[in-house]
Amino acid sequence: SYELTQPPSVSVSPGQTASITCSGDKLGKKYSSWYQQKPGQSPILVIYQDTKRPSGISERFSGSNSGNTATLTISGTQAMDEADYYCQAWDSSTGVFGSGTKVTVL
Amino acid sequence: QVQLQESGPGLVKPSETLSLTCIVSGGSIRSSSYYWGWLRQPPGKGLEWIGYISYSGYTRYNPSLKSRVTISLDTSKNQFSLILTSVTAADTAVYYCARATPYCSGGNCYSGSHWFDPWGQGTLVTVSS
Asked: A97, B46: Cβ pair inside 8 Å?
């Protein structure tokens, strides 16, 4: 079965840039999405179709996808960005999520 | 703006059937632009896609759950439902419903291209005797 691999954790200082990677076989040939989940809350969509940002999502969030790796980048990271982030893609019409990355703003 | 709300029992006995409903407000589940999905998250763990259904009743399920899952629509009540049979402790999770939007181009929409937005608040289902 298809797997998406994310680092368990990423630490970033306030105002700096956080990059979260998501790796999978030929992932660049699939569309990826990214979800932010804060403790006790439902996930919210922050990036879809690799690079698109839903209405209401800060411009600090951006995405890319090429080769075997999709990347979510948070620019000018703020304390409110501290959360778990999950990548998601489709393989043979089956939805697959990465294991999640905890972003800590130090 | 569309909102989703899950409802159903919070406790199910092992080997029995889990049944949840997602009530959709602010939009019609008969819209051809969207699908309607179920996902879950075991306590302290990551997200898992269960399946989705289209406005026309087309369904797609996670192969790991396919033999036990049924998703259906009730257009008269603007809601959709999840049934999971023969549950075990491994099915204990927060269950979410979500609207799924497919990528469409030139009048064609592509299976397996969806993103999930918005999500319901989630409901914890515990499988225990």
From this structure: yes
